[in-house]
Specification:
CATH architecture: Alpha-Beta Complex
Number of domains: 1
Largest sheet: 6 strands, mixed
Strand order of the largest sheet: 2-1-3-4-5-6
Number of helices: 5
Distance between the termini: 8 Å
Number of strands: 6
CATH topology: Maf protein
């Protein structure tokens, strides 16, 4: 049984399909031209938003759906951008602008604390829209002084994972995929997912 991923984000699709393919699961993202309006992600946590997306698309399309909601939490900014990571600074701002906003706000705090973490919640819905499993993955690190690297997507160029001197934007994808918040959430989901899909 194939699995639908509740996203059109090409970076997420690449990471998720790769992680799932390694476990023998075929997955694909939402078609770019899909006419179904996306759900309103009004949750106050990553887990709530992941569940909203998974349940919504499963009911609409009558098939099992895996959704993730993820973002960056910066300690000195009291956890911002958090669940607003994709919309930080406004819906129309680019990630270059979002990263600059984080760096500017960090500078304004005059704090030496640059600790941060990526968080990913993964929710699996059956074809009726029932959430049958939900997992959380995190990756601890710090915020770089400036963006570095062009690999990855989103906030990757300003996030340095613990134990490394390079940002996610500089690290090879095989290294990032082995320690990222998303890979940890999926790794925890896999035993249930294999049984659910009878892989």
């Amino acid at each position: 049984m194939d699995l639908l991923l509740a996203t059109t984000n090409s970076g997420k699709i690449r990471e998720l399909t790769g992680l799932l393919a390694a476990a023998g699961i075929t997955a694909y993202g939402l078609p770019e031209g899909m006419v179904i309006e996306p759900p309103r992600e009004g949750g106050s946590t990553f887990a709530e938003n992941a569940a909203i997306k998974a349940a919504y698309y499963a009911r609409r399309l009558d098939m099992p759906v895996l959704a993730d909601d993820s973002g960056l939490e910066v300690a000195a900014l009291h956890g911002e951008p958090g669940v607003r990571s994709a919309r930080y600074g406004g819906d129309e701002t680019t990630f270059d602008e979002k990263m600059r906003l984080i760096l500017d706000r960090l500078a304004e705090t005059e704090s030496s604390d640059r600790t941060a973490r990526f968080v990913c919640a993964a929710a699996l819905a059956d074809r009726k829209g029932n959430i049958v499993n939900l997992t959380i993955g995190t990756c601890d690190g710090s915020i770089a002084e400036a963006p570095f690297g062009t690999a990855g997507f989103g906030y990757d160029p300003i996030f340095v994972p613990d134990g490394f001197d390079l940002t996610f934007g500089e690290l090879p994808s095989e290294i990032k995929d082995g320690l990222s918040h998303r890979s940890k959430a999926i790794a925890e989901m896999l035993p249930f997912l294999r049984e659910f899909l009878a892989v």
